[in-house]
Amino acid sequence: MKKRIFLSAPITGQINENKGAFNDAATILRAMGHIVFVPYEIMQQYDTDGWEHIEFCRVCGSILIAEADIMIQLKGWERSSGCAIEKATCDLFKIEYMTIEEFLENNK
What we know:
This protein is α/β, with parallel strands linked by helices and 108 residues long. The chain has helices at residues 19-31, 39-43, 53-67, 81-93, 100-106, and strands at 4-8, 35-37, 70-73, 96-99.
């Protein structure tokens, strides 16, 4: 079954904003037929100069709430304040979440 997936991973302080991990996961999931929302792809449509961290969280959180069936957590999510906000959002709005490894194991 096709899912609408929001990817969650650390961005701040990561090499190239962790785009490699996001791209790898998105490529795998899209090849499986899923729709994938990647935070840095979402943010490309905005002029984010001068934005605070919370503003990025608000925009991505709105996509997570409005569009995603499930959130997939990538390596390092547990050490990221942005990922903690996304996980809390999932808990509040009853959006399923799991690690990429769990998702791939459950969707062979």
